[in-house]
TrEMBL record:
Transmembrane segments: none annotated. Belongs to the universal stress protein A family. Residues 4-142, 149-289 form the UspA domain. It comes from the Bacteria. SUPFAM superfamilies: Adenine nucleotide alpha hydrolases-like. Gene3D superfamilies: HUPs. This is UspA domain-containing protein. CDD domains: USP-like.
Length: 296
């Protein structure tokens, strides 16, 4: 099993971030990993000068934030015996990136819809530095926590990395039901090209059928590669972003796992458009998976 040693919960406000603590604690307890909580206090730029009054205000803010986090842990994660709390001053995204570079967490847990903070920057210009540069998957909590994860969905496009992602998910959530979904789509330029050459709808249908056959073979191979776990599969057609977000609307799906969505050739300099759509529109929690440290 992949070793999980440190789960990082990046928090901003309470009680809104109680769910982040609950999910981070859930996974930390499963794997007997340490739990780290990071909170960043954003002071206005005018406060950067280290005058005695500014230093006093910052220290007071850090003390109050630490007490707030301790109370939240007692409330939302009472089974956690010990959590390491870090309170930093600065910009949220930059502080999170620096922390990840220093401590290399195995999973980062954040909340969706934080006020122009961590998640907003995760899918912005600074954000992908966390997803690719931190060498850790990012779990985005979008639903209130009512129970441990029961059913996890893995989105695959049939390319390399599906088996690693599925094994990661199976190890991360050993008690959850696993489901794999592959979306078959004919890209608009190809479809238009087939139409313009006059091959007709029959050729398009034949090409789609071939894609579906390959998808079935891929899903069967992936499902059979997980030892001791039942894995269900599904093929959908249409636009990948819409098909995947529609799948998250099932009350039975607690979590969808997607990749960063860019090839390793580009070093994931950007987050793929499908992944961005899933992060934005999914009705359940989203795990942005990436290969384990050093395996890219």
């Amino acid at each position: 099993m992949t070793p999980y040693k440190n789960i990082l919960a990046a928090v901003g406000e309470f009680p809104q971030d109680d769910d982040v603590l609950m999910r981070a604690a859930e996974i930390a307890l499963i794997h007997k990993a340490s739990l780290t909580v990071l909170h960043v206090i954003e002071f206005p730029e005018d406060f950067e000068l280290a005058t005695p009054e500014v230093v006093r205000l910052q220290q007071e803010a850090k003390r109050e934030a630490r007490e707030m986090i301790k109370a939240a842990i007692d409330r939302a994660a009472p089974d956690v015996e010990k959590a390491d709390i870090f309170v930093e001053i600065g910009a949220s995204a930059a502080a999170l990136i620096k922390h990840c570079e220093t401590f290399a967490p195995d999973l980062i847990v954040v909340r969706s819809h934080q006020r122009q903070s961590i998640l907003a920057k995760l899918i912005g210009s600074t954000a992908d530095r966390v997803i690719r540069g931190a060498s850790a998957p990012v779990l985005i909590v979008k639903r209130p926590v009512k129970e441990p994860y029961q059913r996890a969905l893995l989105a695959t496009d049939g390319r390399e990395g599906g088996a690693e992602a599925l094994n990661y998910l199976a190890n991360l959530l050993p008690d959850a039901a696993l489901h794999i979904m592959q979306v078959v789509t004919i890209l608009p330029p190809l479809k238009q090209s087939l139409i313009s050459t006059g091959v007709g709808q029959a050729a398009i249908d034949s090409h789609r059928a071939a894609l579906i056959r390959r998808a079935k073979e891929n899903l069967k191979k992936l499902a059979n590669g997980v030892t001791g776990r039942a894995v269900t599969t599904r093929i959908a057609t249409g636009g990948p972003g819409n098909a995947l977000t529609n799948a998250t609307r099932s009350p039975k799906t607690d979590l969808i796992t997607v990749g960063p969505g860019r090839s390793s050739l580009l070093r994931r300099a950007l987050i793929g458009s499908v992944t961005q759509q899933v992060i934005r529109d999914a009705a359940c929690d989203v795990l942005v998976w990436r290969p384990w440290k050093g395996e890219e």
